[in-house]
Design a protein that fits this description.
459 residues; alpha/beta; Rossmann fold; seven-stranded parallel β-sheet; four-stranded antiparallel β-sheet; 15 strands; globular
Length: 459
């Protein structure tokens, strides 16, 4: 790598030669990679800037571009492989003119995943993205290309939770991560700050104490949200899925158990996604440990989530999760026990340890949902539906609010046409409105600044 520091602005011009999946390529592969990166230049620029500003305190996806308007990234073809040029890159990603190694790895992951998506999942890629099996195969292909599928013992815990949480909640996520790490468990999160960073930070200390050298801190994100939730510095494996639905499927296919910390609408979306799948008859006998946890002060938060689930999805849904408050050690013990059952089940079913092929995920949970005003208003949020079908539409409702809060396309729709309208059964809408109001009051919608709702609940 060669670098030239601009002495007038806090930016750096750099030339990089990627490693890890991009270092041994044929001329044809390099040419296709270059062509793909050219066709998605704006997306590549946005995702690269998010990585280079890792640790940013803002959750506005446009903030980094306003701070670094002259930033650019170019992918060049050479016989020796790929060359990446950075122009006016944020100086915070460099030390003495050299790009921080961890940041460089995440940057190469951005190029790798966006190029793979453009080449393999594009119109000429030959993938069947209209069927359940085809979409699952695409998710598998992305994860395998990222080199994070390894035939190791089941030990991966997915941790969900908000990017905007209180200090007490953040400390608690670190404590849980520490207890998980002591038991040899690795961590996978959405890669951002808050409840996505805390478990990883706690686990690093525990892993060091246990002298574990091969550790995984996997961050799975998607282009629409990475700019608002840039990867935290602990992530050592970053994967960018094409959309939120494939991101959620990747969590469920890779994880051996899931822990949910307090969060906002994104966390509610994740809970509903998983419960909708687990409530299907096809998955009734599938062991999948799911624990909702937080500090003692967050007990009321989980009580409200629990009430909302009982009202919408029914009492049967509560049998698929456990709520543990204020006890990190018990959380880790229960998760470790649950993962042992997952291991036994995978062996009995001859399923792989690294990718859960057995779990049935229907097409309704896989197809990308574009949150337009029309689509949000037409969601069927009424009683009398099968729980997993209602869960699919509830998930879409929360996904739309996430888009309106932190995704650039969604924010533009709100600015142009006003808030989304969400319609449904009166009691369901009353409970939904109360839940969303609580999220706003607890500052779970936005890290900084006054929150302006991007939605309106209509009974």
């Amino acid at each position: 790598m060669t670098a030239h520091i601009d002495t007038h602005l806090p930016t750096v011009n750099a030339r990089l030669y990627p490693r890890g999946g991009l270092d041994v390529l044929s001329r044809d592969e390099v040419a296709r990679l270059r062509d793909a990166s050219t066709g998605m230049h704006d997306l590549l620029r946005r995702c690269a800037l998010a990585v280079l500003t890792s640790g940013s305190a803002s959750d506005d996806p446009r903030a980094a571009r306003e701070l670094y308007p002259d930033f650019d990234i170019e992918v060049h073809q050479q016989d020796r492989g790929v060359r990446i040029d950075l122009v006016h890159a944020p100086a915070m990603a460099f030390v003495d003119g050299e790009l921080i190694r961890g940041v460089a790895e995440l940057l190469f992951a951005v190029v790798r995943d966006l190029a793979y998506t453009a080449i393999e999942l594009g119109e000429d890629g030959g993938r069947d993205l209209a069927s359940t099996d085809g979409i699952t195969d695409a998710v598998f292909g992305l994860l395998r290309n990222a080199r994070i599928l390894h035939p190791t013992e089941p030990n991966l815990v997915v941790c969900w939770g908000g990017h905007s949480i209180s200090r007490d909640e953040y400390v608690y996520t670190k404590q849980v991560g520490y207890e998980l790490g002591l038991r040899g468990l690795d961590i996978c999160t959405g890669c951002g700050p808050g409840a996505m960073k805390g478990p990883m930070k706690g686990a690093t200390i525990a892993h060091a104490k246990q002298r574990r050298r091969r550790t995984r801190y996997i961050g799975i994100t998607e282009p629409g949200i990475i700019a608002a939730e840039s990867p935290n510095p602990i992530v050592n494996h970053l994967v960018i899925m094409p959309d939120i639905e494939k991101r959620l499927e990747a969590f469920v296919r890779m994880g051996h158990g899931i822990i949910v910390f307090p969060g906002g609408v994104g966390t509610a979306e994740e809970i509903l996604y998983l419960l909708g799948i687990l409530l299907r008859e096809e998955n009734a006998g599938l062991p999948f440990p799911l624990i909702l946890t937080g500090p003692t002060a967050s007990a009321a938060y989980f009580e409200q989530i629990d009430r909302f689930i009982r009202l919408t999805l029914g009492e049967a849904a509560t049998s698929r999760y456990e709520i543990i408050v204020g006890d990190p050690a018990t959380v880790a013990k229960r998760m470790s026990t649950g993962i042992r059952k997952v291991r036994e089940h995978r062996i009995a079913q001859k399923d792989s340890f690294y990718f859960n092929w057995s779990i049935d995920i229907p097409l309704a949970f896989q197809q990308p949902f574009v949150p337009t005003h029309e689509a949000m208003a037409s969601l069927n949020l009424h009683h009398g539906r099968a729980p997993h079908e209602l869960a699919a539409d509830l998930r879409r409702a929360f996904s739309g609010i996430v888009a309106g809060n932190v995704k650039e396309d969604g924010m533009r729709r709100i600015e142009a046409h006003g808030p989304f309208e969400i319609h449904g059964a009166p009691d369901m809408m009353e409970s939904l409105d109360a839940l969303l109001r609580a999220f706003v009051a607890q500052r779970r919608m936005k890290i900084a600044g006054e929150y302006r709702p991007c939605y309106r609940v209509v009974a």
